[in-house]
Amino acid sequence: MAELVADCPRCGAGHITLDLAGENFSRIEYGWQHWYEAFCICRKCHDGSVIILAQTSAASQVNVRNIGLGALAGTLNDYFTVEGYLSLKDENAEQPPEYLPADIEAAFKEGATCMAVKCYNAAGTMFRLCLDFATKSLMPADDVDGLTKRIRGSLGFRLAWLFDTGRLPEALRELAACVKDDGNDGAHDGTLTEVDAEDLHEFAYELLERLYTEPKRLQIAKERRAARHKDVG
User: Residue ranges of the domains in the chain?
Assistant: First the structure.
């Protein structure tokens, strides 16, 4: 029986041996790195956990898919790193819009995870961070069209200025009401409700799609069209 040495998510025992009882191939990253969900039983508490495993570069030549985790020689630690375990945070956590900058994608994913586990203040803070990153990138270098230091420094004032100057679609203005001019929307003083957090989530999702996803999809479509016409020519 294959073994894994890790911290038990159920009883908290550190560096304990867990026995592999089942496996599910998850995906391949970078063209070689196999990811698995391994169902393991702790030898101390005898409870089961789903451990997330990622193949190490040192074992990249091993054809894990063909032989399976249970047939690997030695311990699973010789081939994989432990990346976490399946828990409530993985339930219904929404994926971000496509083609986001890395910092915005990370903040959105964290916000979505917080929503899934009902941590609404944390979720609202992360969605505000997404909006902060995205709107700062729209700011011109010079103070034009009434732009001031106060507007630059406040998410609420910044959004209003972007709408008023036509730099954001007017159709999104109503959704932006969840972000107050003075920042007093509960994200800072810990009073956000589920409704408040969902409002911030919805606005962040729609804005990010407009700013990043839709332009990238159009670019990809144009590139495909150009390639088709090049082939015909």
Answer: 3-86, 102-221
Gap between the Cα atoms of 212 and 44, Å rounded: 49
Helix (H, G, I), strand (E, B) or coil at 31: coil
Quick one: how far is CA 74 from the chain centroid? Answer: 34
Give the pLDDT of residue 68.
86
What is residue 71's three-state secondary structure? Answer: helix
H or E element in which residue 227 lies:
helix 214-232
Residues 6, 51 contacting (CB under 8 angstroms): yes
Measured distance CA(100)–CA(108) in Å, rounded: 10
Phi-psi region of 68 (alpha: psi -120 to 50; beta: other; left: phi over 0): left
Round to whole Å and give the CA distance between 104 and 109. 9
Its pTM stands at 0.66
pLDDT for res 72: 86
> Measured between alpha carbons, how far is residue 227 from residues 221, 222, 224, 231 in Å?
10, 9, 5, 6
- pLDDT at position 189 is 67
* Ranges of the chain whose pLDDT falls below 70: 58-62, 88-92, 181-189, 233
